[in-house]
Each structure stands twice: as structure tokens, then as C-alpha cells.
Design a protein that fits this description.
The complex is a heterodimer of chains A (268) and B (305). By secondary structure, chain A is mostly helical. Chain A is 74% helix and 0% strand. Chain A has one domain. With 305 residues, chain B is α/β, with parallel strands linked by helices. The chains are: A mainly alpha (268), B alpha/beta (305).
Chain lengths: 268, 305
């Protein structure tokens, strides 16, 4: 079974490397946030006496890259209708939840790869200069990427038609990103928004990254939750999401929908 | 379940909502045999194969594949089977060799064995020169051959083939069938095939005709054919009613379609000269041929209608 898991992950990563253009274009979005929107707000906030907004954005942007990268990766991979690979997987001699776990693992790696690429761009520009604990940074990256991949997997096993990426974008990715403390500190938010941020597991990934990358940031730009709190939510939520996804994927009706979908001849 | 059976089902049924896709199917497939499932689209063939390959859970009844029960021991069943789907189960973005390597790893084969068997299969299907080509650049026939190679790479004792040669030309079909027969004789594999090409099941040890999820006929092809007729008399005429009136008392009701009548003739010594001579003047064509499985299918369908 380990051989199979390794093969599944290697295959997904091979595909990722072959789609280099997609990886490169994934770098455009965070850089626009940083240098266009970030610069605009930096100027505004500096004038009001709160400098370093761009620096504040960095942990959130790394998380954003993982959110888009890992979540979309796990979402598209679980129901990989086009490729025919799912047909190979569903008759392979291992329990079905293994498919879910392997694909979540490779989606996590896709997210991590994108975050590392962004870090390679940010490092020479000095945006990572505040990093004090590399170990914590690694933990933050892995936990956040895993969380995003798990959420993608969970959405995938519960939705029937996943062709509509716009729906996932508008109902999951954008709200999770905007309501996370990635773009503004949580402390001053109105109560309703604050409540939404608190129930959003992604917020704790952003906060963990603030612990790792902005330990010396002056208020209100530092981390806002306790470190263990962040870790507990990230690991706990990922485990819960994956357990539900594995259970659901092994259930006959979900699987049959997939089997029927895969056996339908394409009309062209 | 008796040891000599590769596949056994008892009252196996599957319903989707109120649609009964497979209705109380009883099958016994001996080890090493070549078993054909025949029927039109929607007759329940694919659903049957899906239940046997653990993709779909039966609504009622039981099934054993390779000695394992499909609902309770799905992983053990999947270890014993290979499946070739109607649709390609290949990764179009990977190369030929990468696909085989991936399939081998999924089956848990060691890289060394995977390479060895992969080479054998590539050679057998004339794909050696294409080994590093992406699957998306292969022709339909090559892709199908690779798909079958993928399905048999781990040498499964039981192989399910769901309309494997659909859309292929005659040369490719022949090549694939030669290989499958070799697999049976050399490895003793059990083959279960669904198809609607009758000529592909003529070599079967046993066939089942399905309609509306039910078995409408089952047996050895030769026995099924001789059970339906020795000969089929085909008549093309502008006055089918006249013909039918004249010959029905002797041969039974014909199959009729657009000025063409088919009578089945059980008498093995029948010859055209036995027909009343005046009838020959009102035909456009009259033809006597041996009955085959197509006829079995047509007549069973009529009986079941």
C-alpha cells in the first residue's frame, strides 16, 4: 500500500511540475496584493501613524497562496474525471480512503511548493527578515497547507458537480481569505465579523504564520491567538475534515455516483 | 462457495431509485473459463460488472469473486481482479511507460517486476517504440491496447472487460483477442466480457443474454444457436404478408422488418428446394444461412418482449 501511496503522490507532483506555467502564474496574485494593494494601504496607514502594512501582509499572503494552491489542487484531484486515472484508482487493491489521503497529501505538497516559491521571491526583498524560528515556520506552513488541502477534499466529496469553480471561489476561498486576519488585524473588527473570523479555521493558519514571521511586529500587527491554540485548531480541524471525507468517500452512494460518472461514455 | 468457481452470484440485484438495473442474477463462472455477457445498452451488463468489481454495492443478493464476498471483502476482491473499462483508464498526461509503472505500483508490484512485465506487454502490443510517448499522442487502438496491458499487468486471476474493443478496427480487435486468448491458456485466467459484438463471444465457454437486468438466455454458444434454429431463411419481398401466411404454419412466426422476413428452421436437412416453387416468383431475394449468435439474440429478444 505504501508503494501505491508513493506512486499516487509522485504522479500528482509530476503533473504539477509539468504544468509549470500554472505554478508561475500562481505567484502573480500574492505579488499584486503585496505591491499594489499593499503599497496603497501602506501609504495610507503610514500617514495615520501605523507603518509596515506591507510587512504585515506577508504571513497572510503565504497562507493565501496555500489556500488557492492546496484547496484547488485537492478539489480538482479528488474528482479527476477527465484523466481516467480515477478509474485506475477505484479498482486498485487498497481501501478507498487511501485515495483520499494520498490526494490530500499531494495537494498539501502543491500548496507548500507554491508557498516556498513565494518565499524565494520574498527572501531577497527582505520580507522574511523577521523570521526567528525556522522550525515554527515549517510547522506553520505544513499545518496551513494541510488544512487547506483537507478543506478542499471535504468540499469535493460532498459536492456532486464540481465543474463550477466559481461557486467554490465565491463561497469558500474568498470568504475564508477575507475573514481570516490576513488583510487586517482581528482585534478592531466589528463583533459579527470577528465571530466569523473566529470560526474560520484558516484564521489560525494565518495567525500561526504571524507567530513565525512577525514575532517582533508591533501591535496591532502581531499574532493574536496563543500558539498552542492555533496548532490545536489546525491539526484538529484537518483531522476532522479528513475523517469525514474518508468516511463519506467510502459510502456506497458517493462512490456509486463516481462509478457511474466514470463509466459514462463521453459524448464527443 | 465451491472452489472451482471464479465468480458466483446469487439473486444479485441492483436498483437505482425505482429502476431495477439488475434483477436477481444467478451466475456461476468456472475458473479459467471465458464468459460473455451480452445485451444492449442499458441491459445491466455494466452494472453487473461494477458490482462484481466492487464499484457498486448490490441492493440485494450476494456475489463472490475469487472466493471473496464483494460487499464484505472488497479489497481482497480487487486484489484478485483486473478491470478494463469502456472508457480509458489511463493518464493522458503521462507517457506509456509511466502509465504502466503507475498501474504496477497501485497493484503493489515491485519496480523490478513492473519493468519486466511492462516490457513484455509493450513488445506484445507493438508499443515498445512508443514507450516514452505521452498517451495523448497515441492512436485509439494503441491506447486501448495499453489500457488492456494496464489491466493485466499484475496478472489478475480474473479479468473483467467491459466492451473492450468498442470503436476499434478489425486489426486491432484481432490483436487484442489473440492476446486475451493467450492469457487464458498460459495463465489460466478467467475472463468475463461484456460486449454487443456477437463474433467476439463465439469463443466463449458460456454466454448470458441480458435484457432489462434479467437473464433471457444462458448456455454454451453452440447449444444456444442450435436451440434457436439450424438455419435462418431470409426472404426479401414486396408482399411479406403473403409470405408469412404461407410459411408460418410450417416454420412459425417470422421476424419481420421492412419487407424482410426471417424464418427459423429447425430441420437440419432443410434445403431451399423444399420451398413451394410458386413463392420464388414473388421474392426479390431468398437466402438460407446457418444460424448464429446474432439470431439467438434476436429471437430471445422477441421471446422476452
Amino acid at each position: 500500500m505504501w508503494r501505491a501511496i508513493k506512486a499516487m503522490i509522485m504522479r500528482d507532483l509530476t503533473r504539477m511540475v509539468r504544468q509549470r506555467g500554472r505554478l508561475v502564474s500562481a505567484m502573480v496574485r500574492p505579488l499584486i496584493w503585496l505591491f499594489v494593494i499593499g503599497s496603497g494601504f501602506d501609504a495610507l496607514l503610514s500617514a495615520a501613524g501605523t507603518p509596515n502594512y506591507r510587512q504585515f501582509l506577508v504571513p497572510g499572503l503565504l497562507c493565501m497562496v496555500m489556500l488557492f494552491g492546496a484547496l484547488l489542487a485537492s478539489l480538482s484531484m479528488v474528482y479527476d474525471k477527465e484523466s481516467g486515472v480515477m478509474r485506475m484508482l477505484i479498482v486498485a487493491p487498497f481501501p478507498r480512503y487511501v485515495i483520499i489521503l494520498a490526494r490530500t497529501a499531494s495537494a498539501t505538497m502543491v500548496g507548500l511548493t507554491q508557498a516556498l516559491m513565494l518565499m524565494l521571491i520574498l527572501l531577497p526583498l527582505g520580507y522574511l527578515a523577521d523570521t526567528q524560528n525556522v522550525g515554527l515556520l515549517v510547522v506553520g506552513l505544513v499545518c496551513t497547507a494541510l488544512l487547506c488541502a483537507s478543506i478542499g477534499t471535504l468540499i469535493a466529496v460532498f459536492s456532486k458537480a464540481l465543474d463550477d469553480f466559481a461557486v467554490v471561489m465565491n463561497f469558500f476561498i474568498f470568504p475564508m481569505y477575507f475573514l481570516s486576519g490576513a488583510l487586517y488585524p482581528i482585534g478592531q473588527l466589528p463583533d459579527v465579523l470577528k465571530a466569523l473570523v473566529l470560526i474560520n479555521p484558516f484564521s489560525y493558519g494565518v495567525d500561526l504564520m504571524k507567530h513565525a514571521l512577525a514575532a517582533r511586529a508591533s501591535p496591532p500587527f502581531g499574532a493574536e491567538f496563543a500558539l498552542y491554540h492555533d496548532l490545536l485548531v489546525l491539526v484538529g480541524f484537518s483531522a476532522l475534515a479528513l475523517s469525514i471525507a474518508c468516511y463519506r468517500f467510502s459510502q456506497a452512494p458517493v462512490f456509486e455516483t463516481l462509478a457511474r460518472m466514470l463509466s459514462h461514455r463521453k459524448s464527443h | 462457495m465451491p472452489n472451482a468457481l471464479a465468480i458466483e452470484t446469487r439473486s444479485l440485484s441492483k436498483s437505482y431509485g425505482c429502476l431495477l438495473a439488475v434483477d436477481a442474477l444467478d451466475l456461476s463462472v468456472a475458473q479459467g473459463s471465458f464468459f460473455g455477457l451480452l445485451g444492449r445498452n442499458g441491459s445491466g451488463k455494466t452494472t453487473t460488472l461494477h458490482m462484481l468489481s466492487t464499484l457498486v454495492r448490490p441492493s440485494a443478493g450476494q456475489a463472490w469473486v475469487g472466493g471473496y464476498e464483494v460487499v464484505r471483502q472488497p479489497v481482497a476482491v480487487r486484489r484478485a481482479i483486473g478491470v478494463v473499462f469502456q472508457e480509458s483508464a489511463l493518464d493522458r498526461t503521462l507517457t506509456v511507460v509511466e502509465n504502466l509503472r503507475f498501474a504496477a505500483a497501485l497493484a503493489g508490484l515491485s519496480p523490478w517486476i513492473a519493468r519486466q512485465r511492462g516490457e513484455e506487454l509493450l513488445k506484445l502490443f507493438d508499443l515498445t517504440e512508443k514507450r516514452h510517448a505521452p498517451v495523448s499522442t497515441l492512436s485509439g487502438g494503441m491506447r486501448r491496447a495499453l489500457d488492456i496491458a494496464r489491466g493485466v499487468l499484475h496478472r489478475p486471476p480474473i479479468l473483467f472487460l467491459d466492451e473492450p474493443t468498442i470503436g476499434l478496427d478489425v486489426i486491432n480487435r484481432r490483436q487484442i483477442w489473440r492476446f486475451l486468448h493467450r492469457l487464458r491458456t498460459e495463465e489460466g485466467s478467467t475472463l468475463m466480457l461484456s460486449t454487443h459484438y456477437m463474433d467476439e463471444v463465439e469463443g466463449c465457454d458460456e454466454v448470458v443474454f441480458m435484457k432489462g437486468g434479467k437473464t433471457i438466455g444462458q448456455g454454451r454458444p453452440a447449444a444456444l444457436v442450435s436451440g434457436v434454429a439450424s438455419f435462418i431463411l431470409e426472404v426479401e419481398t414486396e408482399t411479406p404478408a403473403l409470405f408469412a401466411q404461407e410459411l408460418t404454419p410450417r416454420f412459425g412466426e417470422p421476424l419481420a422488418e421492412e419487407g424482410r422476413l426471417q424464418f427459423r428452421i429447425l430441420d437440419r436437412d432443410f434445403a431451399l428446394s423444399h420451398l413451394p416453387s410458386h413463392l420464388k416468383h414473388i421474392t426479390r431475394g431468398i437466402h438460407l444461412r446457418r444460424a448464429d449468435l446474432n439470431d439467438v439474440y434476436l429471437w430471445l429478444n422477441r421471446a422476452g418482449a
